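Risk register update: the risk of archive-format incompatibility is retired. Evidence:
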Amino acid sequence: MSSFLDWATWYHDQELCVVPVKPRDKAPALDTWEQYQTRMSTADEIRQWWTDMPAANIGLMAGINNHAMIDV
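Archived output:
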């Protein structure tokens, strides 16, 4: 895998909620992202985000599907 889209899709396939993050930052690259605290992003949303913002980093939302995260 080489692109952010490839990795974002892989994380989604692992049942993780993926959102785009501003490059070299931890802030979401979406105007409204709070809905992803309670629902999964879709494969179509992920494709659209990384088509529009190919340099966006990948953010993973904690708490979806009982996943916990550690930020390192």
